[in-house]
Amino acid sequence: MLAAYVTHFDQQDPLAGLTVGDLPAPEPRENWSVVDVRAASLNHHDLWSLRGVGLRTEQLPMILGTDAAGIAPDGTEVVVHGVIGADGHGVGPSESRTLLSEKYAGTLAEQVAVPTKNLVPKPPELTFVEAACLPTAWLTAYRMLFTVAGLAPGDRVLVQGAGGGVASAATRLASAAGVEVFVTSRSAAKRARALQQGAAAVFEPGARLPARVDAVIETVGQATWSHSMRSVRPGGTVVVAGATSGDANPAELSRIFFQEITVRGVTMGSREDLAALLRFLARTDVRPVVDEVLPLSQAAAGLARLDAGEQYGKIVLTT
Question: For an engineered disulfide with 95, which of 91, 183, 223, 309 has Cβ 3.0 to 4.6 Å away?
């Protein structure tokens, strides 16, 4: 089967270790299902894997990808939940949690094997391309906004760094739920796109906001951390799901404890969160922002666009 996979690591040029070619199809195993992938989306996790973060040389070749939608063995249309081992289904009871492409082969392939419990029915209202955008970035954004930050209609949120998958998802979901959304970006074009996606106001990074927010969606890290700390209200929440510009330094601990700010980390979400997200989209006109759709054979082009930060929304590969 055709797949996009890591053959070696390169910190400076991650795409140098990418190969798109044939690999053996996954073997059936007890309590697992082999899904025929129709669409899979790219994430920064794929670029970190190509740099060797979370993988060892002896695990190579490793198929990339954490997101997919496709056809289950019984013919049903499904969305793949990419968290493996969170509750023991399909793996040993003491196995620690991992994401697809960390221990088990990922989704950037014509087929992927996952625990059968990790298959969530795809609503007919969503296309395969739309559904493939959800299990990492959109699921993470949903959990950050509603499960962790507990935002409700009328609340206010700051989304740092418009354009990324989580940021664009958070902008769309929060605005659809009646939350006032502030968005930052260095790019005037991306700020304009954020307004089109429902943001109430957009700002350059570090700009003073008209009011403090109840929560901050933080995926940028060092470049925006100080601004996030200054922008959240006392007792508010900063939810962290990434650090594309590096770890925050300093952490501003004095501000955190003095103003009683909650800092919470999020990595994707539960199957229940994913099912709730799918219902949210099926019942509304909210759909993932898709930057580009490419065939699986052009995975390198999609990853290069992601690495350059040129995208707004998700890049999807189809089989």
Answer: 91
Alpha carbon of 34 to those of 11, 73, 198: distances in Å? 32, 7, 38
Enter the pTM of the model. Answer: 0.89
Query: Which amino acid makes up residue 54?
Result: G
Beta-sheet pairing, 180-184 with 201-203: parallel
Q: Is the pLDDT of residue 88 over 70?
A: no
Say if CB 190 and CB 163 are below 8 A apart.
yes
Is the distance from CB of 225 to CB of 252 less than 8 angstroms? yes
3-state secondary structure 148-201: HCCCCCCCEEEECCCCCHHHHHHHHHHHHCCCEEEEECCCHHHHHHHHHCCCCE
pLDDT digits (tens, 9 = 90+) for 191-218: 999 999 999 999 999 999 999 999 999 9
- Say which DSSP state 300 is in: H
Amino acid at 30: E
Q: Which of 165, 184, 170, 146 is nearest to 264 (CA)?
A: 146
